């Protein structure tokens, strides 16, 4: 590769690779530029470790003449024989470069090389790519060029690694911020925070269906079981709801002990309140079935569980609330307060699902009026509705 062409590529990366709008596009354009400059690449891979509770890392694989493949791997890969015998393990764990000339008997052998050799690869290089925080990520470079990479080719690869690491780190940090916000505050709130809504007083009014639930008998459960067991039970219990809520368009805003607060936004301009509330009810039914099926063995006893969920619809204030530099992105308002009060009524009535009069009027399903109940903080008693399909269960 000519030094002038190499400098153009490194400058493009340092300048932010502005001609590419997404990581896959940046990967493809970088590889195409390197090939055009004389680096005989056939396959290139970039492997980024992520800060995510379920995903170990992401990878972008470019092959000449093909679309960039994007993949994710979970933490289970660390226990697989494939990873144990992979050159990338050496890169990740030891921070060392791995070189494999396919026809050189002195090269260290990895099973992966057999696959590469079968595809006509003559040379393979896996290099560490270090971020500023010291974390080690990886790139891999393969060629079908007769004789493999030359010394000049390897020098060019080494020259590209540092600027590639900087632009990759910037992209990775932004994605990490998005994932952490999604994990801890939800995707809708996360997008708003990342978009600049970070000051107290940044809030909006939104119409939404409100979901507020908690686990029956949680206090007694916490008293008689070890804390670690209680946490594990709570995780399984929340799994029963979160998948259904998100699958039907809702966003989980907060876990409060055994309580869960979620909202399902309503587009008042479209007028889809009935559709949204119908999906909320579907999510409630799915969660009810999942919780009823949940069985957790503790010694000789199998614990079974019940929960209650209150459904309401109304306007909420959605945004930053807190003191000083410690804020919470959440929702408040009379509608949320009413949902919280209704949730307590589920236990008194032995019901799993109860709805406010407003929710029942919007979501016209087979509701049964359970009566009027005085609600603390509200001047008028509120009509409460339950599903006809449910049989009340006496609460101990």
Give an account of the 3D structure.
This protein folds into two domains: 3-185, Beta-Lactamase (2-Layer Sandwich); 194-387, Nucleotide cyclase, GGDEF domain (Alpha-Beta Plaits). It has twelve helices and 16 strands. It has helices at 3-14, 23-36, 81-84, 87-94, 111-118, 151-185, 187-194, 218-224, 227-247, 273-293, 334-349, 357-362, and strands at residues 43-49, 55-63, 69-74, 98-101, 123-130, 136-143, 203-215, 251-256, 259-265, 295-298, 301-304, 307-323, 326-332, 353-356, 367-373, 382-387. Strands 7, 8, 9, 12, 13, 14, 15 and 16 form an eight-stranded mixed β-sheet that branches. The protein has a six-stranded antiparallel β-sheet with strand order 3-2-1-6-5-4, with helices on both faces. Strands 10-11 form a two-stranded antiparallel sheet. The radius of gyration is 28 Å and the shape is elongated.
């Amino acid at each position: 590769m000519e030094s002038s062409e190499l400098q153009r590529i490194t400058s493009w990366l340092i300048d932010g690779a502005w001609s590419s709008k997404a990581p896959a596009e940046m990967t493809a354009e970088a590889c195409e530029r390197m090939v055009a400059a004389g680096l005989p690449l056939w396959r290139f891979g970039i492997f980024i470790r992520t800060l995510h509770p379920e995903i170990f890392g992401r990878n972008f694989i470019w092959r000449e003449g093909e679309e960039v493949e994007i993949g994710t791997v979970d933490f289970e890969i660390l226990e697989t024989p494939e990873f144990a015998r992979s050159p990338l393990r050496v890169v990740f764990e030891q921070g060392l470069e791995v070189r494999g000339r396919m026809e050189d008997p002195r090269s260290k052998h990895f099973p992966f090389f057999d696959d590469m050799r079968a595809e006509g690869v003559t040379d393979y290089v896996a290099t560490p790519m270090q971020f500023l925080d010291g974390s080690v990520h990886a790139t891999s470079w393969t060629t079908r060029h007769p004789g493999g990479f030359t010394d000049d080719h390897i020098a060019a690869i080494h020259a590209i690694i540092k600027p590639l690491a900087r632009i990759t780190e910037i992209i990775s940090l932004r994605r990490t911020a998005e994932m952490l916000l999604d994990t801890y505050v939800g995707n809708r709130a996360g997008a708003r925070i990342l978009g600049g809504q970070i000051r107290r007083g940044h809030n909006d009014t939104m119409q939404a269906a409100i979901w507020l639930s908690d686990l029956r008998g949680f206090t007694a459960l916490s008293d008689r079981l070890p804390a670690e067991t209680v946490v594990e039970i709570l995780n399984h219990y929340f799994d029963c709801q979160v998948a259904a809520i998100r699958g039907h368009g809702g966003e989980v805003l907060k876990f409060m002990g055994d309580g869960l607060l979620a909202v399902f936004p309503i587009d008042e301009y479209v007028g889809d309140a009935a559709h949204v509330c119908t999906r909320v009810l579907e999510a409630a039914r799915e969660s009810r079935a999942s919780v009823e099926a949940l069985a957790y063995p503790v010694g000789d006893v199998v614990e079974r569980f019940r929960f209650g969920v209150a459904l309401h619809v109304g306007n909420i204030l959605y945004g930053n609330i807190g003191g000083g530099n410690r804020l919470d992105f959440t929702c408040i308002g009379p509608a949320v307060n009413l949902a919280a009060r209704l949730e307590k009524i589920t236990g008194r009535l032995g019901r799993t699902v109860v709805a406010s009069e407003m929710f029942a009027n919007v979501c016209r399903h087979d509701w049964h009026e359970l009566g009027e109940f005085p609600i603390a903080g509200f001047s008028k008693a509120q009509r409460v509705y339950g599903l006809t399909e449910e049989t009340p269960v006496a609460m101990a």
